Amino acid sequence: MVTEVRKDWADLWHPTKRQIEAHNAVKKYKFLLYGGAVGGGKSYFLRWETLYLLIHFFTEYKIRDIVAGLFCEDYPSLKDRQLSKIRKEFPPELGKHHADHKEYGNCFLINPGYGSGVIAFRNLDDPSKYMSAEFAVVAIDELTKNKKAVFDELRHRLRWPGIPDVKFISGSNPGSIGHGWVKKIWFEKIFEPGEAEAHLFHFVRALAIDNPYLDSSYYLTLEGLPPDLKAALKDGNWDRFAGQFFNEWDRTIHGECPITKGQCNEIIGVDYGYEKPSSVGWYKIGIDGKLTRYNELYETGLTYTALAKKIVEMTSSPEDVDYIVSDPAIWNDRAHHKESLIGESGAETMQRIFNEAWGVSKVVLMQGDNNRAVGWGRCREYLKPHKDQHGQVTAKFGATRNCVEFIRTFPDLVFSKTKQGDVDKTGEDHAGDEFRYVVMSRPETPTAPPKHHIPTTEELIRKKVRDSLTKKKEPKIIGM
């Protein structure tokens, strides 16, 4: 017998107005992110919406034994956020929780009158475990606790014969290792080339104030948090969040910085990657020592030859370039791509191409200082806000609006869990590393000479940088 979805469904789970908004959005969109701050009832929404969808699919398509997956990053989180609550909340008339079902393991099995659907409770310590699985619904609690590879893996598992409108639903706060990619997709609407379902991604914001079931003391607790935590957890500000490495970042100060008169000389920063993106930034040096990042290249799959040629193409005034600074690893990377000469390192390949384009030793590729802790500290100094002579708040570093990848990834860097004073290297730190090499190549004071040059070209680089800082040039206004 087919039992219709209960007419009193809202009375059964008592959703908030914001949860009803999310429930209605699920009908229209395939990929829903709900929440964005603490206290909005994300976990509650996920389990009840998953239950609803299974019964709805049974009613709509007359298909039994449909499986949904409800995921957390690990089992303790799954137990605390979901299992302990489901045992109390889901009424026996709808089904029963099984700690170790012989076929589905830890699951909630819906009663036959509602279709015998299954909510399989799973953790994401190893997503490859689900390579052969299929789910009509994928629900992930705290999506930002996971890397994008987890989303990609489960997205491929999102299919069920006879159900054309399978659903991916998730909830999350700002922060953690997945903050950057979640923000990129659901907030900034930046997708991979060829993304055919971009129009099916949707975000419903929910704050603690949207949840009438919270005790008043909870709001007072949120009000008392430090500014960065309060911005993220109470206000749902995805530019400020718990665990953020550079909480000095302010988009209005550092991410909307115009190029001004007097900024003539340039530095180009490079962080090489092949499977991961290569990040290249073009920096103008102000007469006051301010760095302005005004152009960028952020791309995967580039050999050293291809990368060097792109840098040449994108450098409009090579005569203004003081030097190019890159990650030191490329000096030891030899004979790994077809275009290189025998035994030539990546750095030597790039320098050869620069020489061919601009003349020998006109623009020198120098080895970056990879002291990460010191480097990040120096970057932090460049981000500190201060008032200029006109009383306007500024900083020693800024990026123009077209540096979208830097503006996207740099403020999303989080603290390493294993190395004090460092960022989590499993995140998108490529643009950050490139910026760090540039900052470390600069003198600590206006009178100090540049440090950490390649020993074989030390005198040449010192002279070139010193000359570039002291020679007189007509100021230019650099067009965007």
Question: Could you explain the architecture of this structure?
Answer:
- This protein has 480 residues and is α/β, with parallel strands linked by helices.
- It folds into 2 domains: 9-234, Rossmann fold (3-Layer(aba) Sandwich); 252-470, Nucleotidyltransferase, domain 5, CATH 3.30.420.
- It has 15 helices and 16 strands.
The total count of helices amounts to 15
Shape label: elongated
Average pLDDT rating: 85
Low-pLDDT stretches are: 446-459, 472-480
CATH class of the largest domain equals: Alpha Beta
- The CATH superfamily of the largest domain is P-loop containing nucleotide triphosphate hydrolases
Strands ordered across the widest β-sheet: 3-4-5-2-6-7-1-8
What's the domain count? 2
What is the CATH architecture term of the largest domain?
Answer: 3-Layer(aba) Sandwich
Which structural class should the secondary elements be placed in?
alpha/beta
Assign the CATH topology of the largest domain.
Rossmann fold
Number of strands: 16
- What level of helicity do the residues show? 25-40%
End-to-end span in angstroms?
Answer: 67 Å
Give me the Rg, rounded: 27 Å
Strand fraction equals 15-25%
Largest sheet descriptor: 8 strands, mixed
